[in-house]
Amino acid sequence: MRRQQLSSIEASPAGSLSTPRKRVILHVDMDHFFSAIEERENPGLKGKPLVVGADPKRGRGRGVVKTCNYEARQYGIHSGMPVSQAWELCPEAIYVRANYSLYVETSKRIMSLLRRHADAFQRWGLDEAFLDVSSRFTTCEQATTLGENIKYQLFWQEGLTCSIGIGPNKLIAKIASDHIKPDGLTVVAEEDVRAFLAPLPVRRLLWVGQKTESRFLTMGIKTIGDLAAFSLATLVEKFGVMGTRYHQWAQGIHDSEVSGRKRTRKSAGHEITFDENVENRHFLQNALDNLSQRVHEKLVSRNYLFKTVTVKIRSGDFQTITKSKTLSSHTNRLQDLQKTVNELSQDSLSQNRTIRLVGVRVSNLYMLKGQKTLA
C-alpha cells in the first residue's frame, strides 16, 4: 500500500477553508475494477496486458475498452478507446468480454462491507463509494487507521486493492483517491486543502473536461491554483453560473452531503459533444457503442430493465434528430441495447453530414425487487 498524508504542508492562514460543519469523508475507489476481478478469477492473467470490453477480432472488432489493467495502460490504452485502436497499440494483450453479472455480485459484497463503516453512505457506480464518518472522527488524520482497515478487509475478503482519499468534503476525498494509484491512501487535512489542490493540473478538478480545459488554457489557467486565484468576474463572464462553481471548487469548497437517498428516475442516458465535427462513420458508431455500455453499466448496477431506447444525433449545422424504439419486452442485455441503437442511428449516420453530438437514452424502466433506484 502506498500512502501519503498531507497534514504537514505549509499553508497560510488565508488559505484555510471552513465548511458549514466539520466533516470527515472517505472516497473508496477500486483499482481497475473489471480487469482486477478477471485477474482474480484467472491468476494466469496477472502481469500481462489485459483489456476488458470487447473482442477485437484481429483488430477489426467494434466496441470500446471498458477498462484495462496497468500493464495495458503502459501501451497507451485507456477506457473508452475503440478496441480496434487498442489492438493497434498492443495486439499481444489479452482481450476479454465484460462479465457484468460477476462484477455486480462482487460490487454488492464490497458495498455491503463499506456501508458498515459509514454514518452516511453513497455508492458511485459499481466500484466507487463515499463514506461520511464525521460522528467518529473530528479530523481527517484520525480516520487514517479506518482507511487502512478498509483496505485490508477488502483485500482479505475479495482479493482486490483499492485507493482511498480522506478529506473534509466529497470533492477533496475524490481527488485525493486519484492522487496515488493503485493501492494508495491519501489524507488531506482541512487546513491543507488549497496547498494540496494548487499545483494539480486544472483537468484534475472534477467536472472539467477536455473542452473546458482547453478554454482554461487559452486564459492562462493551467493549474487548480491558477483557477482559484483567477478573477471571479471574468470566470462568470466566460462561463456563467458555472464560473462561480469552478472558482469555489478550485478553492476546495464543496458542501454536497453524502447521501444514499432514493430518487425516482424515469430514464437514464449519456451523450457526448465532440470537440470537432466528425464525419467518420466508424468513429461515430464506436462512440454510440461506448455510450450504450455506459448506460448499460448504470442500469446493471441498480438492477434495472429497460424497454424504450432513444438515440439523439446533432449535425454540424445544429439540426437535431431524435429517434426512439420500444421493444416488445423489458430487457437488460447490452446486445439488445447496442443492436437497437445501431438500427436507430443507421440512416442518420449514413447521410453525408458532419456530426457534433450523439446520445443514447433508455426509458420505460422497471426495477427488479429489492434494488435501489438510479441516482
Can you give a write-up of this model?
β11 (304-315) and β12 (320-331) form a beta hairpin. The two termini are 31 Å apart. It is built from 13 helices and 14 strands. The chain folds into 4 domains: 20-29 and 108-188, Reverse transcriptase/Diguanylate cyclase domain (Alpha-Beta Plaits), CATH 3.30.70; 34-100, MutS, DNA mismatch repair protein, domain I (3-Layer(aba) Sandwich), CATH 3.40.1170.60; 198-250, 5' to 3' exonuclease, C-terminal subdomain (DNA polymerase, domain 1), CATH 1.10.150.20; 267-367, DNA polymerase, Y-family, little finger domain (Dna Ligase, domain 1). Residues 7-19 and 369-375 have low confidence and may be disordered. The protein has helices at residues 33-41, 70-73, 83-89, 100-115, 144-158, 170-177, 193-197, 210-218, 224-229, 232-239, 241-250, 281-301, 334-350, and strands at 2-6, 25-30, 50-52, 67-68, 94-96, 120-124, 128-132, 162-167, 184-188, 267-278, 304-315, 320-331, 355-363, 366-367. The chain is 36% helix and 23% strand. The strands form 3 sheets. It has a 6-stranded mixed beta sheet with strand order 1-9-8-2-7-6.
